[in-house]
Amino acid sequence: MRAKKPLTAKLPAKSAKKNLDPVYSRLCEMFTRHKGKLSVAVKKPGTLWMAVTGAMYRGKPLFYGGVKMGRNYVSYHLMSIYMLDVEISPELNKRKQGKACFNFAEVDEKLFGELDRLTVAAMKDFTPEILEKRLAAYKTK
Predict the structure, then answer these.
(1) Can you give the pLDDT at residue 111?
(2) Is the CB of residue 92 less than 8 Å from the CB of residue 84?
(3) What is the structure's pLDDT at 26?
(4) What is the DSSP string of 27-91?
(5) Does any domain span residue 14?
(6) In this structure, is residue 8 part of a structural domain?
(7) Domain count, the chain
């Protein structure tokens, strides 16, 4: 009978799980602060989607943005950023994934302040009427 070899394989070390709750809470505050203009479209653990209150676009609530908790970061989605013609700081631009998503692994008040200003600035022009005009202008190009 063969002698059994001792198990020498090491198990991978568990990575320390980041506590993203403060980031998620802070980013959600930035949307819920505007409850008059925005309403909750979806709210479930780790996800908050906001729509423009009373506005419909093509028969559906007009999605404005949201916050989603991932495994390693929290994403802040701001669809209205497509309509803004503003400068974004290089620091905030580093957090950008795609055109309308910003990822954060920790609270950064300076960047959150800039993101909040962008969120507010885009509200005035993010309406179904303006979207229809821009869509019509886009189709004629």
Answers:
(1) 96
(2) no
(3) 96
(4) HHHHHHTTTTTEEEEEEETTEEEEEEEEEEETTEEEEEEEEEE-SS-EEEEEGGGGG------HH
(5) no
(6) no
(7) 1
Model confidence, pTM: 0.78
Asked if pLDDT for residue 136 goes beyond 50, the answer is: yes
Report pLDDT digits (tens) over 53-92. 888 777 888 889 999 999 999 999 998 887 777 788 999 9
Which residues span the domain enclosing 40?
21-140
Burial level of 84, CB count in 10 A (0-12/13-18/19+)? middle
CB 94 within 8 A of CB 110: no
37 lies in some domain: yes
Is residue 6 in a domain? no
Tens of pLDDT along 90-135?
999 999 998 899 999 999 999 999 999 999 888 877 777 777 777 6
The CATH number covering residue 42 comes to: 3.90.1150
Give the residue from 85, 113, 78 showing the smallest Cα distance to 99: 78
DSSP, res 106 = S
Residue matched to tokens 């303006």:
130
Q: What is the rounded CA–CA span in Å between residue 52 and residue 48?
A: 14
